[in-house]
Design brief:
The chain is an alpha/beta fold. It has helices spanning 15-25, 46-58, 72-88, 103-122, 138-146, 164-170, 193-203, 218-223, 263-267, 292-329, 354-363, 389-405, and strands at residues 96-100, 128-133, 149-154, 175-181, 206-210, 238-244, 256-260, 271-273, 281-283, 335-336, 344-348, 369-372, 375-380. Bound molecules: pyridoxal-5'-phosphate. This is Aspartate aminotransferase family protein.
């Protein structure tokens, strides 16, 4: 077998040399600062970016695992961030939450809590399942895989929101969780949360809202007079909500939050071990050690932006998304699969193969993100994309024209997410 394994370094290289080497290694990266990446990196403005970066490095070495015994400041900042989220999500008095390393971890914890609540209620140990929209994030599949749960995906209505009757048909006595997204990743629309909540209450099943994308920004769309559908604890069936700070909270990675309707619900996802020599080990997260810098940065960004800053961000995002939608609607061969509600757009074509168009965009330096049911070009838009709108649209027109002329071949590109 041939191997390209790197050999263990001799050491002794100074910063300048290391920096140069790292930059050389990354020289082929996608140019995200020029809006070429449709996901992965999020920006509000340069000042918010800088505040997040500085706050992160103030607490670069501390460990949030020690937030209640050693790093009291970080512990307090974490509680503040959770309180800010609880107030945003109409949470009842005994609701609580946890700061995690990302949406997947937030979702994992909520799934575990829901499974254990079901077990406690029904006494079941047999096969259990999650009923969720076809568009729910693959992080639920990952959690289900780790916890031996079956995933049942329900079909969508014409507007790409889940069909709640189809969800009900998939439910049985072993269903531990119903899911709705706010918004879903593939189409950027918010599922009918109120209807799913009513189903959850009627059948006494835990409901989770995946607001990893919209959680920290959609409420501000509503406040600036561009209403998005509510998705929070005001609906009695909602037992938990995941909301990522490192997406549209504009905080440095890794930063997400998961909220529970009650402390009892949260404790179902808290792991306690007192069987080993070093005493009680208790964590409300999957990780033990956690970066204190991410918590400090989130606290600083939230206090820097506050209500007025997030309203401004919502305004800027909404105007940019509207302008992209208008421009794309001006290309006759293209059409939207759903009306974008927050910051995700997805469009395709009934006339030509959008994956061929995507290859044209890739050849012009844009990283294409794709959906395959139906075939679409997908962008999770951030304010990096505003200054490059004209370039993007010109390249999109040119790529569509190439495909129409027949100057492209069968596309080799495939929809991949990571
Ligand atoms: C709707 C939704 N849920 C969950 C996730 C997973 O988040 P993370 O990548 O932070 O684990 C994403 C990521 O884009 C998402 O869009």
């Amino acid at each position: 077998m041939t191997t390209t394994r790197a050999s263990f370094p001799e050491g002794g290289r100074g910063w300048n040399e290391l920096q140069q080497a790292m930059r050389a290694t990354s020289s082929g990266d996608i140019d995200w600062k020029r809006g070429r990446s449709p996901l992965f990196v999020f920006l509000n403005d340069a000042e918010t970016y800088e505040i997040g970066r500085k706050a992160y490095f103030e607490y670069f070495s501390e460990n949030a695992l020690g937030g209640s015994r050693a790093f009291f400041g970080i512990g307090k900042m974490e509680r503040d961030v959770i309180d800010y989220g609880l107030s945003l999500f109409s949470a009842p008095d005994d609701a609580t939450g946890v700061f995690t390393n990302g949406g997947s971890e937030s979702i994992f914890l909520a799934v575990k809590a829901a499974r254990d609540a079901h077990r406690a209620r029904v006494g079941s140990t047999g096969s259990m399942n999650i009923v969720m929209p076809d568009t729910a994030h693959a992080a639920f599949d990952k959690a289900a895989n780790a916890m031996d749960l079956e995933i049942r995906r329900a079909s969508l209505r014409a507007d790409k929101r889940v069909d709640v009757e189809a969800m009900e048909q998939l439910v049985d006595g072993n269903t531990v969780l119903l899911v709705g997204s706010a918004p879903c990743y593939p189409h950027g629309v918010i599922d009918p949360i109120e209807e799913i909540s009513s189903l959850a209450v009627r059948l006494n099943i835990w409901m989770h809202v995946d607001a990893c994308v919209g959680g920290w920004i959609a409420p501000f769309f509503t406040r600036i007079g561009r209403p998005t559908a509510p998705f929070d604890f005001r609906y009695p069936g909602v037992r938990s909500i995941s909301a990522d700070l490192h997406k549209f909270g504009f905080c440095p990675k890794p930063a997400s939050t998961v909220f529970y309707r009650s402390l009892e619900d949260q404790q179902r996802a808290t792991f306690v071990c007192d069987q080993w020599p070093s005493g009680v080990f208790r964590t409300a997260t999957l990780s033990g050690t956690r970066p204190a810098g991410a918590i400090a940065a989130a606290w600083a960004v939230l206090n820097h932006l506050g209500t007025s800053g997030y309203e401004r961000a919502a305004h800027n995002l909404a105007s940019m998304v509207d302008a992209y939608v208008d421009d794309i609607n001006g290309i006759p061969e293209l059409e939207f699969w759903a009306k974008p509600e927050v910051s995700i757009i997805n469009f395709g074509s009934k006339e030509l193969d959008i994956f061929e168009v995507a290859e044209g965009m890739a050849a012009r330096g844009w990283l294409p993100a794709l959906t395959r049911r139906p075939k679409g070009l997908h962008l999770m838009m951030s304010l990096f994309h505003e200054p490059v709108r004209d370039e993007f649209i010109a390249d999109l027109r040119a790529s569509v024209a190439d495909v129409k002329r027949g100057s492209t071949g069968t596309p080799k590109i495939e929809a991949t997410y990571s």
